Known about the structure:
Layout: H1 3-32, E1 45-51, H2 59-71, E2 80-86, E3 100-102, H3 103-108, H4 115-120, E4 123-125
Parallel strand pairs: 1-2, 3-4
Amino acid sequence: MTRSSRESSSRRRSSPAIIRIALAVGALLYAASFPAEAQHDVKVYRIGVLEIVGAASSNVNLSAFRQGLRELGYVEGQNFVIEYRSANLPVEPPTKFELAINLKTAKALGLTIPPALLQRADYLVQ
Length: 126
């Protein structure tokens, strides 16, 4: 085998590799010609619910809240997630009540506070 025949056979062997590279480059250029469509970031709102009663006790309110969000077009799991926590704390009624009246705010609102209520107030804010 002569030198020229060896060179031509090596060219023949490398031509499929060149064709593969040319096809790969062509495919990349073809794919790059299309505009890329990015996924839109969808904000998922996290709503935290903390109550002092168990989940069963507040189920009616939570269901109404979910229904209201659905009516506004929100989809649970896609637009919002509700994280419910129950504290299960003992509730003690208050032992002392105080009445405070803000006279400046009442005057700004045009309210007249009855004198009997003013006498019963623990604090009067001027």
